[in-house]
Amino acid sequence: MGFFKDAPEPVRSEEWVSYPAWSESRYLVRVGAQAPDEVLKLARKIRPTENPRVHQNILEIAAQLPEAMAAELARMEAKWLRTYTGHIVGIPSAAVPLLTHLAGEGQAKTAFELAGALLAITPTGRPWSGRDAALARMSEYEYAQVINGSWPALIQADPRRALSFLCDLLAEVVHAGDEDGDDTDLTNIWRRAIEDHAQNVSHSLLDTLVDAVRDYSLAVVQSPGGWQIAMAVLKARPEPVFRRIALHLLRVEGSAEDIAAALADHTLAYELDYWHEYGELLRDRFTDLADEQREEVLATLARGPEAEMTPWREERGDTTDDLQRTDRICRVERYVLIAEHLTGEQLREYEVLREEFGEREHPTFLMYTGSWTGPTSPYSEADLTELDPEQLVEKLRGWQPGADPQALSPEGLGRTVQGVVAARPTDFANAANEFIGLDATYVRGLLAGLTDALRADKPFAWRPVLELSAWVLEQTTTDDKGTAYMERDPHWGWARKQVASLLSQAFGEGPAEAPQSERDTIWCLLAVLTDDPDPAPAQETRNNGEGMDPATLAINTTRGEAMHAVVRYVLWVERALGDGARAAGLGFAPEAKAVLERHLDVVVDPSLAIRAVYGQWFPQFVRLDADWARQLAPLVFPTTPDLSAQFDAAWNAYVMFNSPYTDVFAVLREAYAQAVEKTNEGENTPPRSDSPEERLGNHLITYRVLGAMSDDGDDDLFGVYWRAAGSELRKQVLTQAGWSLERSPKLDAAIGERFMVLWGWVFAETSARDPGALAGFGAWLGAPTLDGGWLLRQAQAVLNLGVHLNPNFVVYRALPRLASEHPREAVAVLRGMVLTDDQGWSLQGATDETRDALRLVLASDDEDTRSDAQQLVHLLGARGMTEFRDLVSDD
User: Fold this and answer.
1) Which of 423, 445, 700, 878 has the maximum number of C-beta atoms within 10 A of its C-beta?
2) What is the DSSP string of 670-732?
3) What distance in Å separates the CA atoms of residue 791 and residue 783, rounded to the nearest whole number?
4) pLDDT, tens digit, 9 for 90 and up, residues 614-635
5) How far apart are CA 627 and CA 724, in angstroms?
6) Is residue 95 a contact partner of residue 59, using CB atoms and an 8 Å limit?
7) Shortest CA distance to 393 belongs to which of 426, 437, 425?
8) What's residue 545's pLDDT?
9) Judging by beta carbons within 10 Å of its beta carbon (0-12, 13-18, 19+), is residue 398 exposed, middle or buried?
10) What is the pLDDT of the chain when averaged over all its residues?
11) C-beta separation of 870 from 879 below 8 A
């Protein structure tokens, strides 16, 4: 019959691999301790499989068997692991109890054999100049879990072999990328301190093994004769990392005699590979030494580094003076660690050297990475809050920063000014002219504070603020002061950008909006800002190359923010004019219309960031003046190949920032067709969630169900899009449509019908050639307005294709609601979800919902339906989910 023999193999597609659970092996796990002889016989008969879930179960079985039986299965699994190269899901956690069991039952040799296969190191082919020259067959977290879970027992069973085993692994990692074969050990670069330290700024397999050798060396030291064992194992290794670990052990547990011998070793004292651990040992344990031992150490330090360092320094071309200077620096860095214990000649020499070279803050580190929490202000907001604006300006004029730009800085003070101004905008707006002539950093702080006040609906007088803004725009933007990072504004460009942000905020509706009486003055400022050189072409190329898309760049540059402000200016004027504005089209703001038209000329303004502004606001253009928007559409969204980048910048901003509107679709139909044509153009990887491609699909679904486009022929843009889209994109679009339906508690019956017709087309089009894309239908089950029976039947149709519905939590959450009226269909869907769950865990987070659904189905009047539910409960029990057993009787 094949029971306990034919284990399932992995299920593979072009895109994924899944590892199905096997009920038979899981059953053997549950009964292993009760019938070990029979279970071992059955485990031996399991035919070879590449499914790691089955091998996980074999390890779990072995952990329950007597020692000889456990060792037999462990050896079998070690042999398989040495040839298997796939994913080992579940095996690391299952191996820990077995390794511990073997170590405690006199089977340490077999335990090390299994650990060797499991913890094997694979070189990545990358050079040793990085931390990633070697990989394990599991995550670093799992790797550490295996070691930390099983090594205490292995140390107790065979301390020398257990520690040597870890050292072998660490040595493999150290040399994994050593292409030259010269046994180079650069661990001191990648792991600056053997102890846990903030300077060990990242983590890798190297660090996991350094931690393991360090910690289990200390564990070995605690056992009888352990000190000699640990030191013998570590010192037998030629790589410096093991001597560094030995020095760390000395610092933590060493005797005065051993410490004195290490500190008096001239190679350890001046060889850079060992410096951090030697230095910390010197600092922490020098006082434990006897006088004679101290004198010997001081004599070693006084020799300097010449013997070890001279060869490569002379080869580099250092002069005698250079060599002597380096020697003196090395000595002072060592003396500083024990300065309070120096006397006589050593103290006098130290004081002379300290006067010459000073003292490094972190002398035991060859490299030290610091952090900075600045910029820092010389005054707090509380210090400045009680000052009137004139007094504050005097403080700003009088304060001068020190030499260190990362200490107190104008940038820090400017930010403090921003907070003070935001709290008292009326006072500072009236005195805005007082800031004329101050550093750009402080002027920007004032303008930023006023912008914050506008966001908080705090009004203020505009005339002085506009006068200050006009003065700012007269200042040069090219006066780069060569300032350090975050010290002060290097030029007036940042302040100009803040003027644009202030004006953009001024057009928002509310008590703090700018008065219409200042319209002419405001427009004069805006007109200047729309010609600002920021973003320059070179800057735009650089930022896009670093991942800043055009729409993001627009709000972070002066001209981009100014163009956003122009559209908000139009809306501000329209709101003031009321109903009369609509009749005039955009003629009520001809100055803004002219600027918007001029910047669409790629010769005048080739910036992609500015194109994104037009795309983002295009629905407003249609609302304000539909005829004008039709004229603009081919310019904003050009379809010629030479302007493809301009199209993408405008289109991506449009589709990402706007919902679908049928009146806009009527204007932009050609642009939609162009975007459909570019769908997945040249892409071999699925787009990110909420991408422009996905948003396009959402728009097209909306237009389809609203009847704005035909559902056949050339007019069916959704059909063209769907056929061009990749599988993952289709799945994302279906999922988002489901979310949209879930958020629609009311839905016109005709629209609901069109959704169902659309799904019928999608299923017919996709089920044969890309069934996996239909998984996104799972989100549709959350729709409260679509017929529940129809939803369950469509879900079952997808499941019958072998496709697991996602998001699965939506399916499980919906089943109790749907099961009350459609129990037969609900239990069929639940069974399909169980059978298509290759990972075997999707139900784990939905046991309450599953229980509620099963309870409703089991209460059905239909005997066949109840029978289906009972069989499903038994199926779940066979798969290890026995928590539903109480729902059915035993007879």
Assistant:
1) 445
2) HHHHHHHHTTTTT--SPPPTT-HHHHHHHHHHHHHHTTSS-SSGGG-HHHHHHHHS-HHHHHH
3) 9
4) 999 999 999 999 999 999 999 9
5) 32
6) yes
7) 437
8) 46
9) exposed
10) 89
11) no
Q: What are the structure tokens assigned to 201, written together?
A: 């700024």
pLDDT digits (tens, 9 = 90+) for 448-500: 999 999 999 999 999 999 999 999 999 975 545 555 556 889 999 999 999 99
- Alpha carbon of 850 to those of 580, 819, 830, 871: distances in Å? 60, 11, 8, 14
CB burial string 62-94: b at 16+ within 10 A, e below: bbbbeeebbbbbbbbbbebbeebeeebbbbbbb
- Beta strands 134-135 and 122-123 are antiparallel
Regarding beta strands 122-123 and 11-12, do their DSSP bridges make them parallel or antiparallel, or are they unpaired?
A: unpaired
Which pLDDT score is estimated for 87? 86
Task: Check the CA dihedral 354-358-362-366 and report its sign.
Answer: negative
Q: Which residue has the tokens 């790629």?
A: 602
Q: 578's torsion region: left (phi>0), alpha (psi -120 to 50) or beta?
A: left
Tokens of 406: 């990362």
Q: Of 378, 380, 379, 294, nearest to 340 (Cα)?
A: 294
* pLDDT on residue 12: 81
What pLDDT does residue 743 have? 87
Measured at the CA of 75, the angle between CA 72 and CA 81, to 5 degrees, comes to 145
DSSP 840: S
- DSSP for residue 90: T
Give the torsion sign (CA, 12, 13, 15, 16): negative
Please report the pLDDT score of residue 775 as a whole number. Answer: 96
Using 50, 70 and 90 to split pLDDT, how confident is the model at 327?
confident
Show the tokens assigned to 721: 């899009």
CA distance 248 to 285: 11
Q: How confident is the model at residue 682 (pLDDT cuts 50, 70, 90)?
A: very low
pLDDT for position 477: 57
The two tokens of residue 307 are: 């013997």
Tell which residue, 802, 782, 804, 800, has the closest CA to residue 791.
782
What is the C-alpha separation between 82 and 338, in angstroms, rounded?
A: 52
User: Could you tell me how many residues make up the chain?
Assistant: 891
- Please name every residue paired with 354 in a beta bridge, in sequence order, or none if there are none: none
As a whole number of Å, the CA-based R_g of the chain is 37
- Cα 639 to Cα 673: distance, rounded to the nearest angstrom: 10
**114-135: pLDDT as tens digits:** 999 999 998 876 654 446 678 8
End-to-end CA, the chain: 26
Nearest 5°: phi and psi at 122? -125, 120
Q: What span, in angstroms and rounded, lies between the C-alpha atoms of 850 and 837?
A: 15
Q: Is the peptide bond before 375 cis (omega within 30 degrees of 0)?
A: yes
The CA-based dihedral angle spanning residues 741, 845, 818, 871, taken in that order and rounded to the nearest 10 degrees = 140
Binned at pLDDT 50, 70 and 90, residue 373 comes out as low
| Phi, psi at 376, each rounded to 5° | -115, 140
pLDDT tier, 891 (very low <50, low <70, confident <90, very high otherwise): very low
Please give the model's pTM, rounded to 2 decimal places.
Answer: 0.66
Secondary structure (H, E, C), 479-535 = CCCCCCCCCCCCCCHHHHHHHHHHHHHHCCCCCCCCCHHHHHHHHHHHHHHCCCCCC
Quote the pLDDT of residue 11.
85
DSSP line for 301-340: HHH-SHHHHHHHHHHHT--HHHHHHHHHHHHHHHHGGGGG
Residues 385-432: tens digit of each pLDDT? 989 999 999 999 999 887 655 568 899 999 999 999 999 999 999 999
Dist. CA 776–CA 763, nearest whole Å:
12
